[in-house]
Amino acid sequence: MMNRYFTALVSILLLIACSSDNINQNNPYLLDVNVSFTVNTSLPQYTSLNFPSDPVYVSNYGNGGIVIINTGSGYVAWDATDPNHIRNTDCTSMSINGLTLVCSCEDNTYDLFTGNFIKGDELEYTLYNYRVTEVGEGVLKVSNN
Questions:
Q1: Where is the signal peptide (predicted)?
Q2: Distance separating alpha carbons of residues 103 and 111, to the nearest angstrom
Q3: Which end of the chain has fewer beta carbons closer than 10 Å to its terminal beta carbon, N or C?
Q4: Domain that holds residue 106
Q5: What separation, in Å, do the N-terminal and C-terminal C-alpha atoms of the chain show?
Q6: Residue 92's domain is classified under what CATH number?
């Protein structure tokens, strides 16, 4: 009898542990674009990623470019388009201001470590997050698939 409970408990724990880490980030303001690219932190334009708290903007990916930052305990990557208003050609990407991303159209401000909004009126969505994995010595893969 005890063996059955143990087996059931282990089975449940395995199912929970094997669940996907894909977070559904449905946002009506962002396009659903496929992102997968690598960054070599030994290249001059990306060397600041070797140090915490020095974000890097990578253009031509995501909705409006992607910002990557070394948090000190790993890396995070965010879409550089404001997730709380309709995309338009006058305001496609935000700018890095210290450790925040700021929308020049509405002055919405987001924390680069957490992706949470820290300034703005009636904001619903946090920054769109991309997965960052280290695939080699100084090589990071940024993707959403």
A1: 1-23
A2: 12
A3: N
A4: 33-143
A5: 43
A6: 2.102.10.10
Rounded CA-CA distance 111/101 in Å is 7
Rounded distance, CA 19 to CA 13, Å? 10
What pLDDT score was predicted for residue 26? 87
pTM passes above 0.85: no
Q: What would the 3-class secondary structure string for the chain be?
A: CHHHHHHHHHHHHHHHHCCCCCCCCCCCCCCCCCCEEEEECCCHHHHHHHCCCCCEEECCCCCCCEEEEECCCCEEEEECCCCCCCCECCECCCEEECCEEECCCCCCEEECCCCCEEECCCCCCCCCEEEEEEEECCEEEEECC
pLDDT of residue 11: 52
The answer to whether residue 108 is domain-embedded is yes
Is 124 inside a domain boundary?
yes
- Residue 12 belongs to some domain of the structure: no
**51 found inside a domain:** yes
Query: How many domains does the structure of the chain reveal?
Result: 1
- Alpha carbons 135 and 112: distance in angstroms, whole number: 22
Question: pLDDT below 50 — which residues of the chain?
Answer: 10, 13, 15-24
